[in-house]
Amino acid sequence: MGDLTTERSSATGTAPVLVASNRGPVSFGTADDGTLTLRRGGGGLVSGLSAIDDPTAVWVCAALSDADRRAAREAPAGRLDLAGHEVGGQAVRMLDIDPETFARAYNGVANSTLWFVHHLLYATPTAPSFDAGFRTEWAAYQAYNAAFADALAAEAAPGAAVLVQDYHLSLTPALLREARPDLRIGHFSHTPWAPPEYYRLLPDDVARAVLTGILGADRAGFLTERWARAFAACCEDLLGAAFDPAALTVTHEGRTTHLGVHALGADTDFLRERAHRPDVDERLAALRAAVGDRRTIVRVDRTELSKNIVRGLQAYRHLLRTRPEWHDRVVHIAFAYPSRTDLAEYRDYTAAVERLATAINAEFATPAWQPLILHVNDDFPRSLAAYRLADVALVNPIRDGMNLVAKEVPVVSDHGCALVLSREAGAHAELGDDALTVNPYDVIATAEALHTGLTMSPGERADRTKRLAAAATALPPQQWFLDQLNQLNAL
Ligand code: F6P
Predict the structure, then answer these.
(1) How far apart (Å, rounded) are the C-alpha atoms in residues 305 and 97?
(2) pTM flag (> 0.70)
C-alpha cells in the first residue's frame, strides 16, 4: 500500500462521481498461458451505476485475489481502465492491498465481526472474544479503510459526490472528510443494523469508531427504516448523539448526518430478458424432468450463516414427517452456493447443510422419488430456471439487509409462486402483505407455511405473485442509485 499512502491529500482528481466498495465490478483469473482473464460481475451496484453512464466516474475497489493484485499492480495507479481492461461504463481503480492486511480486514473484522454483529450470529457463551489477535485485525481494517480514503481523495474532483458502500468501509467516510472536506459523501449499508444491546458486544472504541466513521458522511443510507432507526439508536446510546426521528437526522459533535432509506428493488428488465434465454430454458427442462409432475419448494442462497438453510431443511423434514400426504408429491430444490470459504464457520455450516440434506434423502427417498435436490455449485441460469418453476419459494433468513431472491422470484415466476418469507428480512417491509410470514427460528411454523404455500389455489398464488412483483420492482437499481446521488447533491 506504500504508493497509496504517499498520495494522501495530494493533487485533486477529476472524477465527479465515485463509488467505493470492497468487491468491484470486475475480477481477474490467470489463464493457462499466464495471461490475465477478466470477469465482469453483476449485482445492484453495477446496474445502479449504469444509470449515469459516465465514463469519468471512478469505482474504487479492493483486489481480492492474487490475480486481482497483479492486475492492479500492472495498471497505472491501479486504474484498470487505463491499462486497457474492459471494465464497464466507468473507470475502475483497484487497490493493491497486501494480502495479509486484506485478509485481516475482510475476513477478520468485516465478515467475522461486523457481519456477525449486524446479523446477530454469535453463539455468545463462547464468542466473540476480543483479544490481541482482534486488535491486529482492527489495525488492518483501519489501514484498509485509509487506503480507500486516500484513493478516493486522489481521484475526486472538487465537490465530487462519493458513494461509499457497506460495513467493509465504515471508517472511510470520516477519513475522507478529513482529507477532502469539499466532497459530498454518502455511505450505504447493505446489511441490517444491530440493536444497541447487541451492538455493544463490540469493544467500546471500535463500536464508536464505526459509528463516527459513518457519521463522517453527509448521508447514511439503509435498505429499510428499521435498520436506519437501529443505527440512530446506536448513535444515541454509544455516542450520546441527537436523533431527530421526524427529519431522520443524527447530530454528533456539531455535524448533522441525514439518514436515508432506499429499498433496493429487483431489476425487472434484466431478469425477464435473462430468464428466457436458451441456457435457462435448457436448465428448466432438466429440472422439470427431475421433478416430474410434483410440486416444488425452491430456495437459492449463498451458503451463508444468516440465510438459515439448516432450519429451512429441518422445516422441510418436519413437513415430510408430519404430513405424509406430501410423500412423492413434492421436491425441495435447494441451491446453496459457496461463500466466504476462508472462514471455518462457513465451511462447517456448508458441511452441516450437506449432512442434513443427505439425511433427509436417506429418510424419505424411494426408488421413484428424490425428495431433496441440493446443488452447491453456482449456476445463475439454473437459479433463474428454478425461480420460474417454483410453486413455493423459501426465504427464511435469521436476519437480512434486504434479500433480493425474495424480490426476484415473483418477477420471474412462470405460473405464480407462494413466498414463505422471514419477518427478519428487510424485504419483508415491502412484501409482508402478500407473503407467508415466518419467524425464522420456528421450524414447525415454517413447515406449516410451506404446507400453506403448497396448497394455495393457483388463482390466489398468481394474484399474490402479481402484487409481490409490483412491490419488488418499485425501486429498480438504477433509480435506487440515482435517488441517492440526487439527494446527496441536493444537500
Ligand atoms: O449484503 C452485503 C454484501 O456485501 C452484499 O452486497 C453482497 O452480495 C454480499 O454481502 C457478498 O459478500 P462477499 O463480497 O463477501 O461475497
Answers:
(1) 27
(2) yes
pLDDT of residue 474: 98
- Residue 5 confidence (pLDDT): 44
Low-confidence spans in the chain with pLDDT less than 50: 1-9
Question: Which residue owns the Cα nearest ligand 1 atom 3?
Answer: 190
List, chain by chain if needed, residues with CB within 6 Å of any ligand 1 atom. 23, 166, 190-191, 339-340, 401
The 3-class secondary structure across the chain, one letter per residue, is CHHHHHCCCCCCCCEEEEEEECCCCEEEEECCCCCEEEEECCCHHHHHHCCCCCCCCEEEEECCCHHHHHHHHHCHHHECHHHCCCCCCCEEEEECCCHHHHHHHHHHHHHHHHHHHHCCCCCCCCCCCCCHHHHHHHHHHHHHHHHHHHHHHHHEEEEEEEEEECHHHCCHHHHHHHHCCCCEEEEECCCCCCCHHHHCCCCHHHHHHHHHHHHCCCEEEECCHHHHHHHHHHHHHHHCCEEECCCCEEEECCEEEEEEECCCCCCHHHHHHHCCCHHHHHHHHHHHHHHCCCEEEEEEEECCHHHCHHHHHHHHHHHHHHCHHHCCCEEEEEEEECCCCCCHHHHHHHHHHHHHHHHHHHHHCECCECCEEEECCCCHHHHHHHHHHCCEEEECCCCECCCHHHHHHHHHCCCCCEEEEECCECCHHHHHHHCEEECCCCHHHHHHHHHHHHHCCHHHHHHHHHHHHHHHCCCCHHHHHHHHHHHHHHC
Q: Of all protein residues, whose CA lies closest to atom 11 belonging to ligand 1?
A: 339
Distance 48 CA to ligand 1 centre (A): 16
The Å distance, Cα 20 to ligand 1 centre, comes to 14
Find the 306 Cα to ligand 1 centroid distance in Å: 12
User: Quick one: pLDDT at residue 4?
Assistant: 44
